[in-house]
Design goal:
- The protein is mainly alpha-helical.
- The chain has one domain.
- It is 53% helix and 0% strand.
- The protein is built from three helices and no strands.
- It starts with 9 loop residues before the first helix and ends in a 32-residue tail after the last helix.
Length: 103
């Protein structure tokens, strides 16, 4: 895990405090959960969407992988994951030790 310092508006801090209290955890845990959820539902979902669009358009696996890596340079996507052998919407591209997708 890596430590980051961020400045966020008070209303977001209040939301994180509410999340932490509800879950019985820390604000740091609430922030990790919020960021992880956002990335899974928005950013990394875009990786699968890009791959799916390319596959439907008839691109080869190599072309799909190249396009995904160009658009999402931090994605840990492999050629096997864009082969079309598994449904893209259910593919977890890579996870680190805390269960979040690897950047």
């Amino acid at each position: 895990m890596r430590r980051l310092t961020v400045t966020i508006p008070e209303e977001l801090v209040a939301g994180l405090e509410d999340m932490a209290e509800t879950a019985g955890g820390s604000i740091s845990e609430a922030l990790r959960e919020a960021v992880g959820t956002y990335l899974m539902e928005h950013y990394w979902k875009g990786v699968g969407g890009e791959a799916e669009r390319r596959i439907v358009a008839g691109d080869t696996n190599e072309e799909v992988l190249e396009a995904v890596q160009k658009r999402f340079p931090g994605a840990a996507t492999t050629k096997g994951e864009v082969s079309g052998s598994t449904p893209l919407n259910n593919t977890i591209f890579s996870q680190n030790d805390n269960g979040l997708p690897a950047p």
